């Protein structure tokens, strides 16, 4: 799996699920409605900034997605037009929920990447090769490789569509 796009960077650790999608919007599970309010308690201009940068890869600090176990958070991110998230680490439940909902997430442990990447940088993530290229900076960094079965789950849109596909194949 190759994912290419431009970065929107939040140089902060511990971005929690309440900042990703505030609890006041959890009365809906409509992905489009959730997307409208994505990240608004962290950055009220997130959607405008994302659009201005033409960004679709979110880069954050460590322990991304800490807080509650709601699936609304990765759904909001995905439906806001983010194709992938890159962070040094994730809250485990957020990691699992991202995979379950079809949001590609990658761990990059190299502090040099986070010092290098800036808003608007052109990124290329290679899940099989285990690297991320920052074309704007002309640098390459290691990321955790993503196993093929996780790539398949993400590629098909999440765990439920994946299970349906397996059922149709008779597996």
CATH class equals: Alpha Beta
Report the sheet-strand fraction: 15-25%
Largest sheet: 7 strands, mixed
Provide the low-confidence segments as ranges.
none
Structural write-up:
This protein is α/β, with parallel strands linked by helices and 171 residues long. It has helices spanning 17-20, 31-36, 46-53, 72-79, 92-101, 111-116, 148-156, 159-169, and strands at 2-10, 55-60, 84-87, 104-107, 122-126, 131-134, 139-142. The chain has a single domain, classed as Aconitase, domain 4 (Alpha-Beta Barrel). 36% of the residues lie in helices and 21% in strands. A 7-stranded mixed β-sheet has the order 4-3-2-1-5-6-7. Helix 5 (92-101) links the parallel strand 3 and strand 4 (104-107). Helix 4 crosses helix 5 (92-101). The longest helix has 11 residues, at 159-169. The radius of gyration is 15 Å and the shape is globular. It starts with a strand and ends with a helix. The mean pLDDT is 93.
Helices, strands, pairings?
Blueprint: E1 2-10, H1 17-20, H2 31-36, H3 46-53, E2 55-60, H4 72-79, E3 84-87, H5 92-101, E4 104-107, H6 111-116, E5 122-126, E6 131-134, E7 139-142, H7 148-156, H8 159-169
